[in-house]
Amino acid sequence: MNLLGAYVPGSSPLHRLDPCIRMLSFSIIFAAIAISDSICGYLLSLAAVVLLYRIAAVPLMPSIRTLWRFRAFFITVFLMNAFFQPSDDPYLSWWIVMFSSDGIIMGARMVLSVILLTQLSSLLTAVATPIAITDGLRTLLHPLSILRIPVDEASAIVSIAISFIPVLAAESSSIMLSAASRGAVPEGRKAKEKALSLIPLALPLFLSAFRRADELAAAMEARGYRGERLRRRRISLSFGGREAFSLLLSISLLIGAIALKGVL
Amino acid sequence: MDNLRKTLACSVCIALCVVLPMAFHAIPQGGVLFSPMHLPVLLCGIVTSWPFGLICGIAGPLLSSLFTGMPGAPMLPQMMVELGSYGFMAGLMMRLAGRGGKLSGVVVSLVAAMLFGRITAGLARAFIFARGSYSFPAWISSYFVSCLPAIIMQLVLIPLIYAALRKAGFVDRRMG
User: Is residue B53 situated within a structural domain?
Assistant: First the structure.
């Protein structure tokens, strides 16, 4: 499966963190990177991401190599910002096109943020299984159930969705292979033709996905499933020195990012 | 469609939000041109109801970002707002205009959802995510010009997929 952050089994402190605290710490670091807007801020974020990879004992190079495959996307994001960002002092201005230094800086910032945040989300999925991520989210969002927000139902939907991802990814590749075996996929031709050839993939994929959902619903009904509200689940939270250090580190990074906003 | 089937339909649509873009990203600019994540979100709203459409629109990009890195985190909140609006409005309009599951109701819901999502996303960018640095030409360019192939593809494919799902018995006629 073409996933950026597959789970990497291990026993590092990040692997052993409580799922809820791990989600909370990563969310704080996500926020710290997202608000960075200066060179110092990006350097601090970069140092934090590299340090976290070292702590987790997860190799950084494979995810960088995967990121390279998205270079066309990064170039598009950069150019969209460079050419469409409103500016008082543009180098070139014609119709809706406005090429300026402000646009170039904004594009570079956007690309840097995307790269750092992608690396961080890749690390999160490397140190936590999908079930641990869902558990962490469920525990983190549990207080919202006081406001009658259906947190348990939403987390059940997300956890079922996660288990469907590899199944549907395999299904899509088998549909594409069967289409190719009939000569329906024009391999190696123009991008437009390749894109048009992917459109017929959608119908069988949706039908197959809904058939699987229907089969699972029948199986769940047969086993007497009556909805998440009637299920009892224990909300557990273990908070030790490791968790305290993790929160301290992430909050320090957030404070650092706020302090460095607009510095250089 | 009962609540369990709606829950599971929503789950598979969220999973498709991760899987479909993986196929389209193999094409240069495939994600930007064809917006493949919009398809399952709009369909989820139409087939289930607005709360499930909203959940699909919020959770779909979130999971895709976690698993594939796309959309990148700076774009993630904007996409969650945009797709959440699509799912919400598609479900709501289907309830108002799509009684009996007529294809005309599906098209009306689709057009309303696509417009509402784009307006909401534009307002969110103008007033929250890119405050002071977002303009009307940038909105037109990013939501109508650059993704014109996606708009055409959605208008053609979603009624077709809906008709196929109804024919296969996965969608209740009464619900739409």
Answer: yes
